[in-house]
Amino acid sequence: MTKIFARLLKDESGATAIEYGLIAALISVALITGATALGGALDNQFDELSKTLNYKKAP
């Protein structure tokens, strides 16, 4: 029984998988945050462009 417990303590494959999972989660959060910020900036830019074009069309 102690040999099995000692072998489980030395096994690091689960820790490596958890680390890769955490890295993937952090990358996902960064991508979502960047896409949200970029989307907001593009929305504002297109709103301003639309207002400018509508202003110039009006008689």
Reconstruct the topology from this structure:
Blueprint: H1 2-10, H2 13-57
Pfam family, one: Flp_Fap
Protein name: Flp family type IVb pilin
Keywords: Membrane, Transmembrane, Transmembrane helix
What kind of sheet is the major sheet?
A: none
Binned strand content:
under 5%
Topology pattern, helix = H, strand = E: HH
Number of beta strands: 0
Give the helix tally: 2
* Average pLDDT level: 85
**Shape descriptor:** rod-shaped
Radius of gyration from the CA trace?
A: 26 Å
Helix content: over 70%
Report the span from N to C terminus.
Answer: 89 Å
Low-confidence stretches: none
Look at the helices and sheets and give the structural class. Answer: mainly alpha
Organism: Shinella pollutisoli
Transmembrane segments: 20-42
Keywords: Membrane, Transmembrane, Transmembrane helix
Protein name: Flp family type IVb pilin
